[in-house]
Amino acid sequence: MKIPKKHNPFSIPDRYFEEFSQHLKHRIKEEQPNIPKDAGFKTPKDYFDTLPTLISDTLNTNETKIKQLKPNKWYYMAAASVAVLALTISGLYWTNSKEVSWNDIVNTDIETYFDTNGLALTSYEISEVIPLNDLNAADFLETELQEAYILDYLSEETNDFETLNLDENE
To answer: Which residues cross the membrane (predicted)?
Structure first.
């Protein structure tokens, strides 16, 4: 395998890998290995003979008495019952017997509701619900509409305001 020299700054002598095993064997034969004669760790005398008895003695120690961390449960139960009692009493005093009526609702709230949620009724369904006996033509004729309201309505409901052909003189 050839390695390009411009990318690798290291060099290897010729036939290094082919002769490596021979150099290693020769070097091991010449030099004395630097291995100590004695092991670094020593076990005490009869350690493995007495080990099972040491383990069993350690495991058979007297158990200590377990002390509960929360012995006063009655204190917490009393505090919870006082809190429930306080909430119940305050709830009874805060309840209002005032009933909500249609007069409490502002007309703009009703209009906003129908604008956002839609009426979901067609004009035919609405005409079936409105009684015609109570309506008079005079009710419609007596109301005067201001020009500003009419122009606002037309500007909102008409896509192309210029197609109405309104003259400024009229």
So the answer is: 74-94
Tens-level pLDDT at each residue, the chain (170 residues): 665 556 667 778 888 888 888 888 888 877 766 666 777 778 888 988 999 988 888 887 777 777 777 667 778 888 899 999 998 888 777 766 667 677 777 777 877 887 777 767 777 877 777 777 777 777 667 667 778 888 888 777 777 666 666 655 44
Long-range pairs of 32-41 with CB within 8 A, sequence gap ≥ 24: none
Exposure string (b/e) for 16-49, b if CB count within 10 Å is 16 or more? eeeeeeeeeeeeeeeeeeeeeeeeeeeeeeeeee
Specify if 41 maps to a domain.
Answer: no
CA distance 6 to 4: 6
- CA–CA separation, 154 vs 166, rounded Å? 11
Tokens standing for 88? 């119940």
Calculate what percentage of the chain has a pLDDT beyond 90: 4
Q: Write out the residue range of the structural domain in which residue 145 sits.
A: 104-163
- The residue with tokens 């956002």 is 116
